[in-house]
Amino acid sequence: PGFPRTLGQAKALDGICELDLVISLNIPFETLKDRLSARWVHPASGRVYNMDFNPPHTQGVDDLTGEPLVQREDDRPEAVAARLRKYKDAAKPVIELYKSRGILHSFSGTETNKIWPYVYTLLSSRIPPILSDEEH
Known about the structure:
Shape: globular
CATH architecture of the domain at 7-37 and 73-125: 3-Layer(aba) Sandwich
CATH class of the domain at 7-37 and 73-125: Alpha Beta
Strand content: 5-15%
Number of helices: 4
Strand order of the largest sheet: 1-4
Distance between the termini: 38 Å
Helix content: 40-55%
CATH topology of the domain at 7-37 and 73-125: Rossmann fold
Family: Belongs to the adenylate kinase family.
Keywords: Kinase, Nucleotide-binding, Transferase
Protein name: KAD4 kinase
Domain Adenylate kinase active site lid: 39-74
Largest sheet: 2 strands, parallel
Number of strands: 4
GO molecular function: AMP kinase activity; ATP binding
Order of helices and strands: HEHEEHEH
């Protein structure tokens, strides 16, 4: 989840700046649930592991200390499912607001490396390149 997450946050953001582009990433519910549920942490250090993308060398233990990893209560599959449903309900009016303003751009997929080129193309068309001092 990004920002703003609620209509109240969107209205507060309106008081700070005028948005001309909003990006919405539509990731399937099951993909999000699986990714969030794969997160484990080393409580003492705060090191985070993802069993799919960044697993520890030895399953269930921290790479540096060998101490056990834990799964936060809100990362358990049933808690993640409830969090995602709550987020979707809260975000729906935010999405509708930006869609009604004509500034919402939505991208769908399950993998960052497949979605990013489309997002990059959109951003590149809206933001001029930054020139180095030598190029001025």
